[in-house]
Design goal:
CATH class of the largest domain: Alpha Beta
CATH topology of the largest domain: Aminopeptidase
Shape: globular
Number of helices: 15
Largest sheet: 8 strands, mixed
Distance between the termini: 37 Å
Number of strands: 15
Structural class: alpha+beta
Number of domains: 2
């Protein structure tokens, strides 16, 4: 096997068949990345790194280039201070970044062709990483990273990254709910008495709403954009900001696997939820809500229960509930699957400073559930 590495600016240069055979059954496959290229967040430039044997793709991962603000992960009382420093010293605190991963995916998709054995995977991951480093040098990016290395792939990434001097810090975990049999009654039975009582009360608010499942939202795209903007404004942590066309592009490219659930109070659209479905999981991508009525209609919990009920009816065993809002998700029965960010600056002095900064902005300093997850992970590794 003679391995070469190539990077592409468009996934279409690789082709659906070669990409998807490395990611069989993946909800966010070829069509998802085509949609992201078509209408993804501004300021991010897609790349795709593949390891080849002749024309055959052996391993693949998405990548991107961007200008990265160091205050992105800062939360709580440090947030306004970090933002002020970034405005005052933008050239010092905003770095050119080349990363494996995606700004629109919550894990770093790492795929291998079916014929690649387990023993060959570590060397292919090293080859992809070398391709990233060459891309960073060619594009003038000092900061090199792997964004959201997933729990299932962490041993491969760690073996490749740590000998090359990459520093690890916690990324945003992914919330996963194993959907029990028996519909909502079966789900309620898995929860504490207090949570069960609270959710049943909140679920009654659905009777006051009109709920639509759609694969086309062109007629309400402006309202969806407004709800999304409201939700982003209420979040301390946001890596990307999606344009309205993104939602329409995902629906168009991934139909019928992608759909949007709309929640209407009378004639007012008060919430939406973008979902991607496969046979083994329902992926909750984005939710947008009108915050003045969030409590009145229990919008977050209503959408949660709508999705759990859908999984139960369709026989979908796993609800991938996304990132953020971890305290409520744990209370609702989620397991948090850790993701990791690995980074290294090609300038050793800047790299030393970034290692210090990473301890200050590490996500486990701001979120107790992430801190608990990291503590569990450390005890398991000990």
């Amino acid at each position: 096997m003679s391995v070469t590495v190539a990077s592409y600016a468009s996934i279409e240069a690789i082709g659906r068949e070669r990409w998807d055979r490395c990611f069989p059954g993946e909800a966010e496959g070829y069509a998802f990345y085509v949609a992201a290229e078509e209408a993804g967040p501004p300021g991010f430039h897609a790349r795709y790194i593949v390891a080849l044997d002749g024309e055959a793709v052996l391993a693949a991962a998405p990548a991107f280039l961007t200008r990265y603000r160091l205050d992105t992960t800062v939360q709580g009382p440090l947030k306004p201070i970090a933002e002020a420093l970034t405005r005052t010293f933008p050239r010092l605190l905003t770095l050119d970044l080349a990363a494996i991963g995606s700004p629109v995916a919550e894990i770093c998709h790492l795929g291998f062709a079916p014929e690649v054995g387990v023993a060959d995977r570590p060397s292919l991951v090293v080859a992809l990483l070398e391709g990233l480093e060459r891309l960073a040098e060619a594009e003038g990016c000092g900061l090199v990273a792997v964004k959201d290395a997933a729990e299932k792939d962490i041993a491969l990434w760690r073996t490749a990254l740590e000998p090359r001097g990459f520093q690890a810090m916690p990324g945003l975990p992914t919330g996963l709910l194993s959907v029990p049999p028996g519909g909502l009654d079966g789900y309620f039975a898995t929860l504490s008495r207090a949570t069960r009582k609270d959710l049943k009360r909140k679920w009654k608010q659905r009777e006051r709403l009109r709920v639509e499942h759609r694969t086309n939202v062109d007629d309400v795209l402006d309202r969806i954009a407004s709800l999304y903007a409201e939700t982003v404004a209420h979040s301390d942590l946001q890596f990307e900001h999606l344009p309205p066309a993104y939602f329409a592009a995902v629906l168009r490219r991934l139909a019928p696997s992608a759909r949007v659930v709309l929640y209407w109070a009378g004639d007012d659209l008060v919430a939406f939820n973008l979902l991607i479905e496969t046979g083994d999981r329902l992926v909750d991508k984005y939710i947008g809500m009108h915050y003045p009525v969030v409590g009145e209609y229990s919008l977050y919990y209503t959408s949660w229960l709508e999705n759990v009920a859908w999984c139960s009816r369709q026989g979908i065993p796993l609800y991938q509930a996304g990132q953020g809002f971890y305290g409520p998700k744990v209370r609702l029965g989620c397991r948090l699957s850790p993701n990791w960010l690995y980074f290294r600056h090609r300038n050793r002095w800047i790299n030393a400073v970034l290692k210090t900064v990473s301890r200050i902005v590490s996500l486990d300093r701001f979120d107790p559930e992430i801190a608990r997850l990291m503590d569990q992970h450390a005890r398991k590794a000990a």
